[in-house]
Amino acid sequence: METIPVLPPPATESPTPWNWARKNLFSTWYNSILTVVCLIIAFQTIKGIIVWATTKAQWRVLEANLPLFFAGRFPRESYWRLWIVSAIIALLGGLTWGNIQREERLWNPPLLIILGAAVVGAVISPIDLTSRFYLLANIIVAAASYWAGRQINPKIMSWMPAIWVLSFPIVLWLIKGGLGLTEVSTNDWGGLVLTLFLAVISIVLSFPLGVLLALGRQSSLPVVRLLSTLYIEIIRGLPLIGILFLGQVMLQLFLPPEYPKLDRVIRAIAGLTLFSAAYLAENVRGGLQAVPRGQIEAARSIGLNTPLLTILIVLPQALRIVIPAIGGQFIGLFMDTSLLSLFGMLELIGISRAVLANPSYIGRYAEVYIFVGIIYWIFCYSMSLASRKIERTLGVGER
Predict the structure, then answer these.
(1) Rounded to whole angstroms, what are the CA distances from 382 to 107, 249, 387?
(2) Which residues of 84-93 are buried (b: 16+ CB within 10 A; e: fewer)?
(3) Distance from C-alpha of 280 to C-alpha of 231, rounded to nearest angstrom
(4) Which end of the chain has the least Cβ crowding within 10 Å, N or C?
(5) CB burial string 263-284: b at 16+ within 10 A, e below
(6) What is the pLDDT of residues 143-179, one digit of tens each?
(7) What is the DSSP string of 255-317?
(8) Rounded to 5 degrees, what are φ and ψ at 100?
(9) Residue 20 belongs to what H/E stretch?
(10) pTM for the whole thing?
């Protein structure tokens, strides 16, 4: 019997940057040419941006109007209330993220880079000394609560959703006032505060409504199924700008004269919620249809009735499947708040337009919209990271 010779293992190159570049960027002559051309274009583009940002851009428009971008016309003497709100969000957000990251390394390099950049940004930011102190305090609260969230018993941390819900009346009281605090009209809400308020409330309200509509569209009751289908198809056939116009301008014309006028923030939230819920319902319906039939039959075989079957078996699996789609829907809803600037609401885009209308800052479009774009990107990318982390935790696409 012939003996098969034992061959040595294939030679491998050390993973140096040059070896990686030679394999991925300069593997052939045409790849080398394409790489060189792309590097030249990238260099010229980055060089132009740096030259413009350091020599031509007039960043004073941001420094002079920074409070407007973040708080709108909120009274300056009540800014401390907004800082307390941000501290509450930093505390709960840090605890939640620490609990999610429980199995990961405590202070990984990306997190340390973000934390260091936040501290440096707070120190050098063009704001008054008191605001810098509050900003640094919020960063410390977020870091400390992140550490605490990893240490606290998971059974206790399971109450975090309820704590988030209970914190909302406190946050609303601090922003709006009343009960001992000076009341601030919603006409004075603006900037990032208004954008986040509209987006968060709309997301929280549209999610359960979208789930109910998805379940209603698959209901065995003809009336429920018909009404859910009509609602979804009608709303999805209308542009968001039209729904917001009906809510902000036309709604009051259909109400009796003696009926009190609805607050414009409530009308904006209603329009965003009703629109987003219809699209969310279709995402959830896709997840419901993807649940294996055997899961439903197995649950029925052990005696589960329809409500328990839906709540305990079908819905958790369906929501797990459509986490990427839901995350994208929430990011889209956050960006859709910018349309409210067309109706005179001074959220981020509305504040930007108001600042650019000032004769002192005419023509400073690039500086203002780059700054606003960075703010939108930070929040949207954070939502994307959270969505991907939840996907990895639940093993979406793996099992």
Answers:
(1) 18, 34, 9
(2) bbbbbbbbbb
(3) 12
(4) N
(5) ebbebbbbbbbbbbbbbbbbbb
(6) 899 888 888 888 888 888 899 989 999 999 999 988 8
(7) S-TTSPPPPHHHHHHHHHHHHHHHHHHHHHHHHHHHS-HHHHHHHHHTT--HHHIIIIIIHHH
(8) -65, -40
(9) helix 17-24
(10) 0.85
